[in-house]
User: Fold this.
Amino acid sequence: MVKFFIVNNIPINKKDQDRYNDLWKNEWHDLHKIGPSVRTRNRILIKFFRKYVHQGKILDAGCGDGSLLIELHKIYQNDLDYEAGDISNNALQILESFDFISSHYLIDLEQKSTLPSQKYIAVISSEVLEHIKDWKKAVNNIASLVEQNGFVFITVPAQMKYWGQHDEFALHYRRFEINEIEDYLRSQGFQVKESICWGWPFYWIYYSFFLNKTPPQLVMKEITSPIKKVISKILFSLFFIDDFFSTKWGRRLFIVAQKSI
Assistant:
């Protein structure tokens, strides 16, 4: 039985919820299955996750379709207690068949009263903060969910100089500069364990010469067609090479921080 915990004293932002419900229903439903960017992001996150977390209760805050939790469950099985939260009903409904996820939460990270009451060994915020107007408030709320010596795992798009039509389509407020989130986490009592600016050279080429020149709707439509599957596999393989570089030309930030106070 899927558990939904909806806190009513501070309502979920209905406008934001409607916008993301529409994206999950009409645009993003296949993206996380074979999209090379999403698969690569999950791969790198899992690499860091395995380094720092071995068992305990975790929360994917902004879980989307649960693709990251599915991959974590393949590795950890029952060593982790998996919980998921998102502002989109449509995203959470995708997770209904995943019986390894113990609880689902309809949350708004800007509203602390909508968050779970317990604490976690790890909270994941992957491709979430760029969608939130007051990102520092969201980070504070995420931090409140992390137990002492627990971890946050964050990914965000990097650098406003790369702003483009895909940011606008995905309802981003910003891209983050190098060290912007890290500095704030340190001010809130976290020790930054990992910080990389990833995505050069092959992801940079892919983004600059293909994604930025292709309408977002065209990139996402019919993503499961045979030709797109082949292209996705090739790109996914090429992106492994980018792991050897962390440069100012990267387009994706990966941050791991531990709560020390």
Confidence is low (pLDDT under 50) at residues 1-10. The beta strands are 4-5, 56-61, 80-86, 101-106, 120-126, 146-157, 190-198, 252-259.
